[in-house]
Specification:
The structure is a homodimer. Chain A is α/β, with parallel strands linked by helices. Chain A folds into 2 domains: 239 residues, Type I PLP-dependent aspartate aminotransferase-like (Major domain) (Aspartate Aminotransferase, domain 2, 3-Layer(aba) Sandwich); 101 residues, Aspartate Aminotransferase, domain 1, CATH 3.90.1150. Helix content of chain A is 35%, strand content 16%. Chain A contains 10 helices and 13 strands. Chain A has a 7-stranded mixed sheet with strand order 2-10-9-8-5-3-4, with helices on both faces. Chain A has a two-stranded parallel sheet with strand order 1-12. In chain A, helix 3 crosses helix 4 and helix 8 packs parallel to helix 10. Chain A starts with 5 loop residues before the first strand and ends with a helix. At the A-B interface, helix 1, helix 3, helix 4 and helix 7 of A face helix 1, helix 3, helix 4 and helix 7 of B.
């Protein structure tokens, strides 16, 4: 594919080219069945195999312990903002939330309607440029879980390591899913949309500790209960067939490329190249995040002024480096470099940054 | 495509072949952008055009009045079972539900957790072989809406005409969506999964009267509020890009083939052929549904005994007529003949039924 661009979109985002090509080939007539996979009964053998394989691979690659359910649930992380407290606080207790930026704020706003929750640490004080230290997380009595957003897509800030806390953690990992290992013993629930690291949009992937969710409240609709999704192996109702199929293919690609440990190393390497370009620019490019907490997925940076930012984005696009515009709420630039972003794309961007600075004043 | 079968699956189900082929062609490099549509920002121009066009076509083809929102929401009809009462009963009042079979029962079971609802008519008394008459729908004081399931996929029974009621209707139309016109003046809310008549699985399509939902309750998560989805044109969070894209293509196909009026006529013609084959078989094939209420989408039938049913299904499959097995909860046979099922498929099945009876005792 001659004209393929380097796509730094924050999500949906770049997927492995071979996955797209394989899906294209199989699309109209799936394995000689005389129909497309998206036309088949989700209870049939061919889709059943796809579904089970995606579920099993998610568990295997992420080293998920046996005592967790692996679930595909529609509605994105946003629906999880409601489901987490609905299910985990039904038996009482409170949820403590770290406000680390836009996505954490969403979890807090929505969660507050479905359980007794409070903000244990608020990043507004430092303009969301770092994550809290363990000693800043003073939990109140009766806290059932501590909710965190492992990586903030918009602020470009991440938890470099999982907090130490006296209660189980709940993590929204939408934007760094399977780019790093999870300390499962600390977590009761991990959730995230798949549309950044794991596939096209259309499903959330949820890992739920069985003992934490198997006595779900009986007084909410079945779709909102983890135990119902678990009992039916994520087929309580018609699953989003195409999304799960694609996630399965991306997971297979991750496996073939060394699994999560390799993704973690690659993410560290790729992000280091961009932060180096920023830090070596003598302030021409700037990133406000505490170096320890800098995201390995979303590298945000500004140029000296908005005029040059605009020019940078236009010239980058012309050079095949697309979707580098920062989120509309903060402006600036953002390079999202998820699992499927080839290292060559990052190299090209770092080189472009250097060249651009040379051409446009240092 | 030489080996293409006639796929009578109840959903997901057969889609127009040209839609599949077009999607395949565009899949890896969408309109020369150097990337797939599923890799693009949902806020970008190319997906934006797809999204707006699918939304506009849904409204146009279904003749939806201006005072309705047209929304794509993940979670299938099942999540709507919760959202309908959450949103419509927040200001008080009760929901009256017609129990017409498996899907209506689901709406009742889930809805009961999120509003004051009651069953106004229960089809269990007639084994779900007909829908209620208007005079059987005695609403209680304070009823805010009357909920119906326009077509029961498993029971093969449908409302032949919309009930007369003193309150607005709410309709789950998952299994006969856009195969017949809607009397919009009677409805406040129409919802359904798209994976039968309108595309692959992965989204529900919801039509909500603005005046009924624009003062949605503030005390539930944003994902569960129709007004939030409406304000963001179904982009409150990352939409299920591929599903909506495919729905847009199927809608275009419906438009090119005469729109909903043509779909309605074709459904009447196709289903009549199968009911004729059943009724002309001298009891060899049987269908329990009151003729007035027989579904135009899901034609259920039994053979004289289970042995011959098994043989029928096996021989039909060998003849390229697949997925004719009835739902596991009821057994027997079921031919789902949604919009995209070609009339030739129905003709082939009717002929096969006749031949099979000839070979296997009449």
């Amino acid at each position: 594919m001659a004209n393929r661009v380097h796509n730094f979109c924050a999500g949906p985002c770049t997927l492995p080219l071979e996955v797209l090509q394989e899906a294209q080939e199989e699309f109209v007539d799936y394995r000689g069945a005389g129909m497309s996979l998206v036309e088949m009964s989700h209870r049939g053998d061919l889709y059943g195999e796809v579904h089970r394989r995606a579920t099993a691979l998610a568990g295997e690659l992420f080293a998920v312990p046996e005592d967790f359910h692996v679930l595909f649930i529609q509605g994105g992380a946003s629906l999880q903002f409601a489901m987490a407290p609905m299910n985990l606080l039904a038996g009482g207790g409170r949820g403590a939330y770290v406000n680390s930026g836009v996505w954490a704020a969403g979890a807090i706003q929505d969660g507050a309607h479905h359980g007794d929750i409070y903000t244990v640490w608020d990043g507004a004080g430092c303009n969301f440029t770092r994550m809290p230290k363990d000693e800043e997380l003073q939990l109140r009595d009766g806290t059932r879980y501590l909710h965190l957003t492992s990586n903030e897509t918009i602020g470009g800030v991440r938890f470099a390591r999982w907090p130490q806390a006296a209660v189980p953690l709940v993590g929204d990992m939408s934007s760094d899913y399977m780019s790093r290992p999870v300390a499962w013993e600390k977590f009761d629930l991990v959730y995230g949309g798949v549309q950044k690291n794991l596939g096209p949009s259309g499903t959330a992937l949820v890992f739920a500790r069985k003992s934490a969710v198997d006595n779900a409240p009986q007084n909410i609709a079945r779709y909102l209960r983890y135990d119902i999704h678990a009992k039916s192996d994520s087929m309580f109702n018609t699953p989003p067939v195409f999304s799960i199929y694609m996630v399965g293919k991306v997971l297979q690609w991750i496996k073939s490329n060394g699994g999560v440990p390799a993704m973690e190393k690659m993410a560290a390497r790729k992000s280091a190249k961009l932060y180096r370009a920023i830090d070596a620019s003598g302030g021409y490019y700037s990133n406000p995040v505490d170096p320890v907490c800098r995201s390995h997925m979303n590298v945000i940076f500004r140029l000296p002024d908005q005029g040059r930012e605009k020019l940078f984005l236009a010239e980058a696009e012309a050079a095949g480096l697309v979707n580098l515009k920062g989120h509309r709420s903060v402006g600036g630039c953002r390079a999202s470099i998820y699992n499927a972003m080839p290292e060559a794309g990052v190299d090209a961007l770092a080189q472009f940054m250097d060249d651009f600075q040379g051409r446009n004043g240092g």
